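hey so i finally got around to running both of the ones u sent me last week. sorry it took forever, my laptop kept dying halfway thru and i had to restart like 3 times lol. anyway pasting them below in the order u listed, first the sequence line then the C-alpha cell line for each. didnt double check formatting much so if smth looks off just lmk and ill redo it

first one:
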Amino acid sequence: MAGFWRAILAVTLLFAPAMAAPAHSMIPSAPETLAATATPEPQIASTSEAGLDERIATRIQDIFSQLPSLSAVSVSVSQGVVTLSGTVPDAAAKSRAEAIAGRVDGVVTVENSLERDVSVDGSLDELGELSDRMTSIVKMLPLIGVALAAALLISLIGYLIAGFGALWQRIAPNSFLAELIASAIRFIFVIGGMVVALEMIGAATLLGAVLGGAGVIGIALGFAMRDTVENYVASLMLSLRQPFRANEWVVINEFEGRVIRLTSRATILMTLDGNHLRIPNSTVFKAVILNYTRNPQRRFEFVLGIDAEDDPTAARHLGVEAMRSLPFILDDPEPQGRVVEVGDSNIVLKFLGWVDQNETDWYKAKSRSIPAVKDALEAAGFLLPEPIYRLRFDPGTQLPLAESGTAAPAKHREPATGKVPEVPAMAASDIAPENEVKRMVDAERAADPESDKDLLDSGKPVE
C-alpha cells in the first residue's frame, strides 16, 4: 500500500510544473514538435573522463577475442575515436567489427582500417572452416536421406491419386480438363513433398527464396510465352463450350472447311479441296464462326437484269414462278424476287431460293436456278440488257452508210407474254449433295479415333 501512494506522489510531482504553467505554454510550436518527435542524437561530452579510452579499448578487444574472425584485430582509442587495424577473413567480418565497435558506450566514431587477409595461412583457415561445414553436411546425410524419402513418398502418393483417370473423367466434363486436374494434383503433392523435406533438414527459409525466385521467373516466362498460355486457355474454353461438332462445315474467319477434330493446341479442318488446315485455338476462340451444317435449310441468291422498257413486276413474278417449278426449291420458306436497282439501260432483279442441304447441293441448286429463270424470262419475251454505246458525229462528217443508202433493218421484238415455259425434268443425282470431303473426314476419324485426343464430344451441348 505504501508503494501505491509513493507512485501517486511521484506522478503528481512530475506533472506539477506543467499544470502550473500558462495555457499557451502547453502548446509547443511546430519546430519544438518536430524536435520532440525526432530521435535525439547522442551528445559528445566537452571533457574526456580519465581512463575512458583505455576502458573502451579493453572492452572492444575483449569482445573481439571471443570471435574467431576478429581475433587478429587491433584496437586503439584516443579521445573516444576508435581505430581498428589488422586483418579479417572477408568483407563481412570488416563490417561486423565496425558495427560492434560503434555500439560500445563512449565511442565517438570508428576509423576502420581493417584489410582482408589474403595470406596462405588465412586461406587455410577458410579451408578449415569449409572442411568443418562439409563435415556437418556429412553428418546430416542420414537426415537428408530421410527427408528425400519423405518427399518421394508424398510425390508418389500424388501420382497415384492423379492416376485415377476414370474418376477424373467422370468428374470433369472432358478429357482435357481431366488431365489438367491430374496435373494439378501431381504438382501440389510434389511441392508439398519439397516443403516437408526442407522443414525436416531445417532449410525452410531456402524454400521461401526458391519460391520467390520461381515467382519472378514465372512472371517473366508468362510474358515471354504469352501466346502459348493464351492458346492453352483457349483450348480449355473451347473444350467446355463445344462450338461445333466433328464433320460440320464451318467458316472460321477466312478459313473454310469441315471439322476433323479439336486438339489441345489447334482446330484441324479439311478444306473443300481436301487439304488439312490447322488453326491455333487462340484464333478460333476469338474468331467469327459461320456454321453451314447447323441449319440444313440454306438460302442462295443471284441477280439478273432486264431491259429498262420491260415490266419489272411481271418479270419478278415470272422468275419466282420459274424457281417454284424447280423440284429442289423449298416451298417454305418460299422463293422471292426483288427489284434492287434501276439503271440507265436495265433493271436489276434479285431472286432468292431455299434448299435442304441434306437432299440438295447448295452450289448445284444455284447453278441450276440461274439458267432456269433466265430461259423463262427470255421465252416470255423479256430482253436481257446489252451494252449500249451512244455515238455523236460532228455536223460536217460523212456517215459510213450514207452513200449506200442501206441500213440494217430494226430487229422485231415479240411482246413479253409472262408465260412460264416448261422446265425439263432433271435426275435426282444432278442435285444430290457433294459428300466427298465429308466421307474423307469420317474415314480419317475412324482410322485414328484417339489421334491428338480429340476434345469434341457429341454428348455435350453445343454453345
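and the second one:
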Amino acid sequence: MHRIALAHDYLTQRGGAERVVEVMARAFPGAPVHTTLYDAAGTFPSIAGLDVRPSPLNRVGPLRRHHRLALPLLRTVVDRTCVDADLLLASSSGWAHAIACTGRKVVYCHAPARWLYQGERYLGDGRGADLPARVRRGLARLALQALGGGLRAWDRRAADGADRYLVNSTVVQWAVRETYGIDAEVVPPPAVLPAAAPEPVPGLERPFLLCVARLLPYKNVDVVIDAARRVGGPDLVVVGDGPDRARLAALAAGDPRIHLLGRVGDGALRWLYEHCEALVAASYEDYGLSPLEAAAAGRPTVALRAGGYLDTVAEGTTGLFFDAPTADRLAGALDALPGWRWQPELIRKHAGSFSEERFAQRLREVVAAELT
C-alpha cells in the first residue's frame, strides 16, 4: 500500500487553506500532516485529531503564536525537512512546496507567496495597529528587504522541484504561470460549512451582514465597516482576528451596529452563515472560499469583482459584485442588495457544484496517476 503524506505551511490560523487541509486529511485517512509550526489554540479544533508533525521550531512558543516572526528561519527549517513517503501532497502558499520527499511530490498551490511577491499589500502600512503589531510588522518588513531576493530565487527552485502542480482558481493558475512558468490544473476546493451544530450568538437580534476574514490590511475590512456605517440598515458582524484588530476596533468604536467578534467556534460560525442577510467580501482573494460557505447556507454574497471571487460567485444568482475596494462602491452594492429576490435553493445548488466528493476524487486520481 502506498504511503501518502500531507504538508502545509503552518497550522497556526483559521482560514480557507486550513479548511482545505482538513478535507485533504479526510481524502487520505491516516496521512501525517507535516508543517513548520502548529498552534492548536490558533487553528481549527478539528486539526487536533490529525497526525500533525511540526518542525523543531514549534518548541518556541512566540513563533507558534506569531508565525511572521519565524520568517528568517523557515527556509533553513524547510530545507532540512525530508518526508519519507511514496507521495507528498503539499498544501502551499509559500513554504510547503519546498519540503522534500523520498517519493513523488504534488503541490496544491493556494497562491505564490504573497509575502514575497506582494509584500506591501500583505504587510499593510501599520497605521492604527498597536505597538506589538507594529513591531512585528517592522521586523517582518526588514526580513523581507534583507532576504527577499534570495528567497524569491529559492522559491522558484522549490516550485521546479514538484512533479505536478495544482491550483485553486483561474487567477492563481495565471499567477503560477507568470511566476514559475508552470501550467497548472485548476482543482477548486469544496464549499464545506462547519460540521458542528449551529450555536446562536448572544446579542444578535437584528438582521445583520457578515464579514469573515483574517484581520489583515489587504482584507479591506475597514472598507466593509465604513460602507456598513454609511448605508445603515442591518448590523455588521465581523468574524476573525489578526494584527489589524486594534485599528478596526477604533474605526468601529461608538457604533453599536458593528460587532467585532474575533474568533468564534464552528457552531457559532455555522449559525452566523445561516442567519445573515448576506456575506460581504471585499478583499483581493486568490480563491475566496467564504462565498461558497455562505452559499452552502443559502445566503448571497456581496463581493469585490476580482480574484477568486470571479470563480465562486455567480452574479445575480448567488451574489452581487462591486468594482473597487472603496466604501462608496461597496455601499452602492449594499443599497441594491434588498432589491434582489434571492432563491436559497439555487444558491445552495451552486455551492453543491463545489463538492468535497468531487475535490477529493480529483486529488485521488492525480495521486494515483503520479504513483503509477
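quick thing i noticed on the 2nd:
The mean pLDDT is 91.
anyway thats it, ttyl
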